[in-house]
Amino acid sequence: MNKCLLRSSFAAPLLLIVVAPFGFGQVQFDLLLQGGHVIDPKNNLSAVRDVGILNGRIAAVAEHLDAASALKTVDVSGLYVTPGLVDIHVHVYASAGEANSYAGDNSVFPDGFTFRVGVTTVADAGCAGWRNFEDFKEHIIDRSKTRVLAFINIVGAGMRGPKFENNLDDMQVEPTAEMCLRHKGLIVGIKTAHYTGPEWTPVERAVAVGEKAGIPIMVDFGATRAERPTSILWTQKMRPGDIYTHCFSGIRNELDDSGNLNPAMWTGRKRGVIFDVGHGGGSFAWPVAAEAIKEGFLPDSISTDIHITSMNAGMKDMLNVMDKFLALGLSLDDVVLRSTWNPARQIQHPELGNLSVDAPADVAVLRLIEGQFGFTDMYGARSNGTKKLICELAVRNGKVVYDLNGITRPDWTTLPKGYRETGDSRWDAVTPAHRRRTTPPATTPAPR
Ligand SMILES: [Zn+2]
User: Fold this and answer.
1) Helix H segments across 272-328?
2) CB 273 within 8 A of CB 93
3) N or C: lower Cβ tally within 10 Å for the chain?
4) Which residues of the chain fall below pLDDT 70?
5) Where does residue 174 rank: exposed (0-12), middle (13-18), buried (19+ CB within 10 A)?
């Protein structure tokens, strides 16, 4: 009955009447996701549960939560409820500014590409260095609804092409570390990428910053050089907790000459080095991924390396990359672990990537469909799969930010004639009631 009343534009006063039998102030949840299969790897949970959300935080996860105590209840039976996905390798320092630059038009604006695939947190992978990080923060991080964190580039100018990225003189420890400390928690690591020279300098300077700031480095190891083999990188240069991204590209000796996984990958893992997918446009090859999985070398984290090229090539989006690991035989629980709780811990944000009580209510509701699907790698080679994940609902800080099939919305034929308002700002960030428009302003407001 209360659901029906809530459809009216007079929801607030009527709600008091409806909840009166339970006492005033007894609305325990702003949003209740009911009957979904919850996968919450941090809490070793993979079972049908209700998830209650209040004031932007997870308030309860239980076998049964009473719908009468919720402002909004959504039936998600038959769907999977997971922590909001955490994609730790993205490129989002977007603008219409610099051509062929990740601090420009190679990047994408985060909100257009995240919620629709269940991603609620991203970490930009080194688009900005200390010289332009605060510009990045002002124009993208602070303006996005997506939670945007960042690996800062060891190159002061950021990821703006070979001329900048091969300049050892611009890889300075002190100003980079200072920027990390100024934005603790926001800058989650230091990126070194695309270096083509023979020196270890970029990795060593990134590590030096990491030591000062207490955060990991992320390595895209650039050109393959005999002077600095990956075997030394994994077994000596990287520290426990440092992240090797593009781990299944195969272009940096991830496989040995006989086609087996390079034993130094195992040695690195035993030392605590993290292996991240970072699919991108040129960093995921079926023979490498298939061999690694066959040998039991699963990636620690699944990430996209999304940019304007990879998103239209084999990578596409976070769920498509997760689908590939389902196609390789991983369980959905294993795939979700590597897309939520593992990456959250890698970037030292253990409050994210889980559904513990009091965690920020970032949630993805996913549908797993069966059929005939194809997935392509960096070389355009296809592998077939039978499973595909689709994002039905994304919740960020307790509010619905994406709803593919309108499962949180009332059927319009049940609404009063001339209806305008269907949501409530306590759970809805898509079409909350307070956005009802009255008379349009007589003059155009001055640009701000
Ligand atoms: Zn990248």
Assistant:
1) 286-294, 318-327
2) no
3) C
4) 1-25, 433-448
5) exposed
Going from the Cα of 127 to the center of ligand 1, the distance in angstroms, rounded, reads: 8
Indicate the pTM of the whole model: 0.92
Task: Tell me the backbone φ, ψ of residue 373, rounded to 5 degrees.
Answer: -130, 155
Which two structure tokens, joined as six digits, stand for 234? 């994994």
User: Residue 420's pLDDT is what?
Assistant: 87
DSSP 176: H
Q: What is the dihedral of CA 101, 107, 109, 113, to 10 degrees?
A: 170
Query: Which H or E element spans position 100?
Result: none
Distance 249 CA to ligand 1 centre (A): 12
Residue pointed to by tokens 């604006």: 109
Alpha-carbon distance of 410 to 49, in angstroms, equals 23
- Comparing CA positions, the residue from 338, 317, 325 lying closest to residue 402 is 317
Between the CA of 246 and the centroid of ligand 1 the distance, in Å, is 8
Nearest Cα to 244, choosing from 310, 189, 174?
Answer: 189
Ligand 1 centroid from CA 279, angstroms: 8
Q: How far is the CA of 129 from the centre of ligand 1 (A)?
A: 14
Neighbours of ion ligand 1 (CB under 5 A): 125, 305
- For residue 27, what pLDDT is reported? 87
